[in-house]
Amino acid sequence: MKMREGVGIFALVGCIVFGLMLARASETQSGSWTLAHSDDPGKVHFTLIQTQKGGHSENDSDWPLSAFQGLNVANPGRQDVHFTILRDAGKFECEGYLNDGEGAGLFHFTPDPKYVQEMQSLGFGGIDSEKQFGMAIQDVTIVFAKEMKGEHLSNLDTDKLIAFRIFGVNTDFIHALRAEGLAASDSDKLVAFRIHGVSPEMVRALHQSGYKPEEDMLIAMRIHGATPEFVEQLKQQGYDHLELEKLIAFRIHGVSPDFIEKLKGLGYPHPEPDQLIAMRIHGVTPEYITGMRAHGIQDLTIEKLISLRIQGID
Question: Which tens digits make up the pLDDT trace of 112-137?
């Protein structure tokens, strides 16, 4: 085969492959939608249900009314509607009906092939049709991708961009955390912060109480409920600036301010933190102490109470 013929065939094959890629990228995806009133002013509760092989996927959340072009939910009674939702990743064409501002219908999503190319230029590859659909739903814009890229985050990919949109990780959140002294550079931890409620306000309150927790410790504290409010309640009971591990252990085992207060009333004014944890682990409750005293057992030190419980003496 002559070189010119070979190059021509190669170019032809390349054009065919590229054409198929564009055709696949422009394939429409369909499903149904529902719309209902929201408690959040200026928003509606919008659900998209996409039919897939072997089942369906569903996404529902509150959307701003500004996202729906050509839709008027203020009209009373029943009305046929046709509206459009434009995203960087593609376009949703929706039709159906509303009845007093609530209704349902069908949608067709057409992905924008330029979106994949622009995202690839930013280093975000692997966007198939399903992922592009998800990025359209969560409104992962090119601008947002550039902003996150500019924050120099580790483990940042398209899945994290979607998660950021779902859980509200943005530049304001990142900068607020960094203003409190955190690195805030790990994408996974940023998502975990949002899921478990680690906020800049929480970090600031802990710093003001003399703590300098690492990011993993902050997540653990939120998971177990060792909040600044809990820290303050313990301080009022005489337990000031406990080790963070002890605070978490208190929450895990149920050492509460109420528990401590009841022990004070029984003559145990300030047990050591480890004693409190051991009492909860072994079931030395105020009721148990009262019961032992009712049986005539006196001089019940905390160590003796724990020993009695371990031996199964009720």
Answer: 999 999 999 999 999 999 999 999 99
